[in-house]
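Input (structure):
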C-alpha cells in the first residue's frame, strides 16, 4: 500500500470522516472562500495558522476536490506555501502537486467504493461527478497495487 494511501487511511480512522472540509476543521485548518479568478485554490500558513484558500466562484463539487487537494498539501507539505492550483496545472508533473492530487484521490475515492462486496450501485462516474475529481487524475488511484481502469 502506498505511503500516501496509508496516511489518508490513518486520518480517516483518527477523525472518522472522509469529508475534506470536516477533516480540515478537525485538524484546525481554516478554510477561506474568496474570488481567485482562474486560480482554483492554494494552501498557506500565516503566523503558524494553516489556511486553505478556495475559489468561491466554482461549483461545490470542484470545491470539494480543491479542499481535498489543498488538505493534501497541508498534511504532506505543511511548511511550504504551495503554488496556486490552476485549471491548467492539474496535470502538473511537480512532485508535491502529484502527491497532493494522489492524497485527494485516495481521500475522495476510497477503495471501498470499488470493492465488489460493496452492494451499492455507486459508479466511478458518479464519484467523479460528486467530488469534482478530474478524470485525468484517476490514473493516480491505486487499488491493491493496480491502477484504476475505466
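Output (sequence):
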Amino acid at each position: 500500500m502506498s505511503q500516501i494511501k496509508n496516511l489518508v487511511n490513518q486520518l480517516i480512522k483518527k477523525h472518522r470522516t472522509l469529508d475534506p472540509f470536516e477533516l480540515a476543521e478537525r485538524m484546525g485548518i481554516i478554510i477561506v472562500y474568496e474570488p481567485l479568478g482562474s486560480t482554483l485554490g492554494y494552501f498557506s500558513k500565516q503566523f503558524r495558522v494553516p489556511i486553505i484558500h478556495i475559489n468561491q466562484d466554482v461549483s461545490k463539487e470542484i470545491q470539494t476536490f480543491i479542499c481535498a487537494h489543498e488538505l493534501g498539501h497541508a498534511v504532506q507539505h505543511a511548511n511550504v506555501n504551495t503554488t496556486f492550483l490552476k485549471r491548467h496545472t492539474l496535470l502538473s508533473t511537480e512532485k508535491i502537486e502529484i502527491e497532493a492530487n494522489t492524497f485527494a484521490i485516495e481521500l475522495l475515492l476510497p477503495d471501498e467504493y470499488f470493492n465488489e462486496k460493496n452492494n451499492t450501485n455507486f459508479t466511478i462516474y458518479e464519484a467523479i461527478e460528486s467530488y469534482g475529481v478530474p478524470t485525468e487524475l484517476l490514473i493516480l488511484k491505486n487499488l491493491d497495487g493496480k491502477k484504476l481502469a475505466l
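Notes: The domain at 3-147 is CATH 1.10.10.2910 (Arc Repressor Mutant, subunit A). The mean pLDDT is 82.
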